Amino acid sequence: MQKLILASSSIYRRELLERLQLPFDVVSPEVDETPLQHEAPEATALRLAQLKARRVAEHHSDALVIGCDQVATLDGVQLGKPMTHDNAVRQLRLMRGRVVTFHSALCLYHAASCRMQAKVVPYEVCFRTFSDESIEHYLIKEEPYHCAGSAKSEGLGIALIAWMRGDDPNALIGLPLIELVSMLQSEGVTVL
Q: Are 188 and 110 in contact (CB under 8 A)?
């Protein structure tokens, strides 16, 4: 089987990929994730997913490399990763009672042939109208400071959500597995 590498430092993406029960390695891509000026959110996510895959492929020319990135938007404005408690509080206050779109980009790069498959899988999340006290409790317990939009649905953050809508619930966590299975199959990798 072709060597498979996940170009991500996210433990949540690693856990999702483990569901496919394929052997893989994990390599952190070390890229600057700053959006370009006037870059659309979907374009940012796609560019970064492709960049991460290519960066890791530079040192693994025999591999299929999976690159991922996610950009959260509210009214078309990128929310980014809060990185601090105060930023997370601001983001969650903005998001309460509103719909946020998470643009999860996926790239599968065949290093030997330079063949790239890439797609953005959107996922909508409507947040409940929660109190400042709820925000504080959530942030203290989860510390989602490295998550786009401060939202971690795979944990306690699910209590902040009124509804979710999209083609693949895994996209919200950052790795659209349904699309990945299709991409792997086109490279001759059989999951089942």
A: no
Q: Is residue 192 part of a domain?
A: no
pLDDT, greater one: 76 or 28: 28
Q: Which H or E run includes 102?
A: strand 99-110
* 3-state secondary structure at position 136: helix
Quick one: residue 107, left, alpha or beta (phi over 0 = left, psi -120 to 50 = alpha)? beta
- Residues 120 and 166: their CA atoms lie apart, in Å, by 12
191 part of a folded domain: no
- For 51, the domain range is 3-186
- Using CA atoms, how far residue 67 sits from 97, 119, 185, in Å, is 32, 11, 17
Residues identified as active-site: 69
> Can you state the angle between helices 177-186 and 11-18, rounded to 10 degrees?
60
Tally of structural domains, the chain: 1
Tell me if 88 sits within 8 A of 82, measured CB to CB: yes
Q: Work out the angle at residue 62's Cα, subtended by the Cα atoms of residues 57 and 65, and round it to the nearest 5 degrees.
A: 45
Integer Cα distance of 75 and 140 in angstroms: 27
Question: Whole-model pTM?
Answer: 0.92
186 in helix, strand or coil?
helix
CATH classification at residue 129: 3.90.950.10
Helix (H, G, I), strand (E, B) or coil at 21: coil
- Find the helix or strand (DSSP H, E) in which 36 lies: none
Question: What pLDDT score was predicted for residue 100?
Answer: 96
